[in-house]
Amino acid sequence: MNIWQAFTMALKSIAMKKTRSFLTMLGIIIGVASVVIMVSVVQGQNKKNMEYFEKMGNNKINVSAYSYYDTNNETSQKLYDYCLSLSNLVDGITPDVELGNKATVQYGAKTLAVNDYSNGNYDWEKAMHIKLGSDQYGVCNNYTLAGGREMSFLDIEKTNAVCVLGAGAKTALFDYTDPVGETININGRPFLVVGYYQPMSLDGWPEMDNIIVLPYTFNRTMNQNSTISSYVVKAKSASATTEAMTLLDAYLAGLFPKNADGHSDRGDYYVQSNNSSAQDIKNQNTMQALVLGAIAGISLLVGGIGIMNIMLVTVTERTREIGIRKAIGAERKSIITQFLIEAAVICSIGGLIGIGIGCVGTLVAGKLLLNETAMLPSPFITMGAFLFSVVLGVIFGMYPAIKASGLQPVVALRAE
């Protein structure tokens, strides 16, 4: 018997017992579909996270430095001056401060509320955020100017009433007109719009575009002179990020020396890179994909046991057929090949159905969970799941096939 004949016989055997064959495949179908959907969703989430970090910009260093005795934001100035001395490693530094008080932004007949929770209808997607930053705010946070200019060093030093708009704030106040040179009022105080940014277009993060950036020196008058403790430092490259983090950590350790108990009486600080955060999230998602894949793989193993069980039943049902074939000279390897191919065909068909269900399930899960309209599993996942199902058929079909090939012709022919 050649391979093609074995395939033909396997298909005929499956077709003769459709219901039993389908129930046998069910474990494989569920297992393959589960693997495809779970791993694809985790990969989709990982991709969105990486897109977020790419949009936010690589080589960003988040610094928190809080002094217990800093009443005039002296730490902020020291850190700013130190980063300027690292010009070979650092592109810029900006405070990462947001106006915490309730505010009203007006232009003409349009009014935007900031931090207004009074009516209970706070809409996060449309809410505006007033940021207080340096002249390097755009560089540090990966914004690109669409028009106008950034705030200048003199704007910061002299506390000039200027602002730069994010794409969301620009649209909300000015629609499609150029806002550069126009004046908006924030809590009744006029601010000249000197520039506006291109959209970040980050799904699920509208606050990245819904910003109005002011000089951080307005912290004294508009933010109740709260202490500035958070900063963003932009390094020139990945290698510069590592070196700059080391130098910043050493510098801040000098500002806030620790006691023998590991704490400082002067303040606290930490230095963290978004490069390491992105890698940590990527590693977590990879581990999650492996765990979910392993859980779904249990369904495949259960399905494989079902294959072995039904193949043993098939051997019993076809004992006389096996006896006749051995009586006329069929070799053991021929019998083994026939049953292995039948088990592999059952698993292959189940795998293909499972992949089809998995693709549909991935589309649905992508839309519901990740807001992706056309998310499909990668070819690597689908091919891997299919091959695994075939291998399961071969592995779990091996014992029934060997048992069938070991039957003695005389004994087999007597079977009823």
Automatic annotation (TrEMBL):
<dbReference type="GO" id="GO:0005886">
    <property type="term" value="C:plasma membrane"/>
</dbReference>
<protein>
    <submittedName>
        <fullName>ABC transporter permease</fullName>
    </submittedName>
</protein>
<dbReference type="GO" id="GO:0022857">
    <property type="term" value="F:transmembrane transporter activity"/>
</dbReference>
<feature type="transmembrane region" description="Helical">
    <location>
        <begin position="376"/>
        <end position="399"/>
    </location>
</feature>
<feature type="transmembrane region" description="Helical">
    <location>
        <begin position="289"/>
        <end position="315"/>
    </location>
</feature>
<feature type="transmembrane region" description="Helical">
    <location>
        <begin position="336"/>
        <end position="364"/>
    </location>
</feature>
<keyword id="KW-1003">Cell membrane</keyword>
<keyword id="KW-1133">Transmembrane helix</keyword>
<dbReference type="InterPro" id="IPR025857">
    <property type="entry name" value="MacB_PCD"/>
</dbReference>
<feature type="domain" description="ABC3 transporter permease C-terminal">
    <location>
        <begin position="294"/>
        <end position="409"/>
    </location>
</feature>
<comment type="similarity">
    <text>Belongs to the ABC-4 integral membrane protein family.</text>
</comment>
<dbReference type="InterPro" id="IPR003838">
    <property type="entry name" value="ABC3_permease_C"/>
</dbReference>
<keyword id="KW-0812">Transmembrane</keyword>
<dbReference type="Pfam" id="PF02687">
    <property type="entry name" value="FtsX"/>
</dbReference>
<feature type="domain" description="MacB-like periplasmic core">
    <location>
        <begin position="21"/>
        <end position="249"/>
    </location>
</feature>
<feature type="transmembrane region" description="Helical">
    <location>
        <begin position="21"/>
        <end position="42"/>
    </location>
</feature>
<dbReference type="InterPro" id="IPR050250">
    <property type="entry name" value="Macrolide_Exporter_MacB"/>
</dbReference>
<keyword id="KW-0472">Membrane</keyword>
<dbReference type="Pfam" id="PF12704">
    <property type="entry name" value="MacB_PCD"/>
</dbReference>
